[in-house]
Design a protein that fits this description.
By secondary structure, this protein is an alpha/beta fold. The chain contains 3 helices and 17 strands. It is globular. It comes from Dethiobacter alkaliphilus AHT 1.
Length: about 190
């Protein structure tokens, strides 16, 4: 398997993701696919299938969380590995879990027993305290704090500087539904 990375999206977040990938020092080649920034991209998003043999890794650096989640699934169907990208200056507890398609930006912190699900962004200097669950596609923006023992439902954005606490949590049913579970009546 080669160590080449395709980044889908060459906008602001895509450029941040590229710098994180470079700082990690594990990829041999990093390029963009983008539908609008053709001056720095080697092709459009739909061209990803063409590059599947040349790039083993692909990462959707798209600001829309639902689109990010859709692209994670599509890239994996096209035989790409979706990496976890963690800047070397971020702190990730050894007991925390960060899942594929997530990016943890510089100076961010993910504390003990916390879970960062697929397709999340933990922004510059953000803090996710201990025993916290961040659902699929969430964005904990720059400097935001998610306090201990919280659950954040899928596709939630916590704005820069905000403090997310237990009073902000969804009901158990809202949380489960947002994370792909249904409560249909029947056998």
């Amino acid at each position: 398997m080669n160590k080449n990375l395709l980044i889908l999206g060459a906008g602001g977040h895509g450029r941040v993701v590229k710098e994180i990938a470079e700082a990690m020092g594990v990829f041999d080649k990093i390029d963009f696919l983008d539908d609008e920034n053709s001056d720095i991209a080697i092709g459009k998003l739909s061209d990803n299938e063409i590059f599947a043999g040349e790039y083993s890794y692909a990462f959707p650096a798209l600001s829309d969380s639902e689109l990010r989640m859709t692209w994670i699934a599509r890239l994996e169907e096209n035989c790409y590995t979706t990496p976890v990208l963690i800047h070397p200056t971020a702190y990730i507890s050894p007991s925390a879990s960060v899942y594929p398609g997530s990016a943890v930006l510089p100076k961010a912190m993910v504390n003990t027993n916390s879970v960062i699900e697929r397709g999340c962004i933990v922004g510059l200097g953000a803090i996710v305290d201990h025993d916290t669950f961040i659902g699929f596609g969430c964005h904990v923006d720059c400097g935001a704090i998610v306090k201990a023992h919280c659950m954040v439902k899928a596709n939630t954005k916590i704005d820069s500087g905000a403090v997310y606490k237990r009073d902000d949590m969804p009901t158990p049913q809202e949380f489960m539904e947002a994370n792909g579970f249904s409560f249909g009546v029947g056998v």
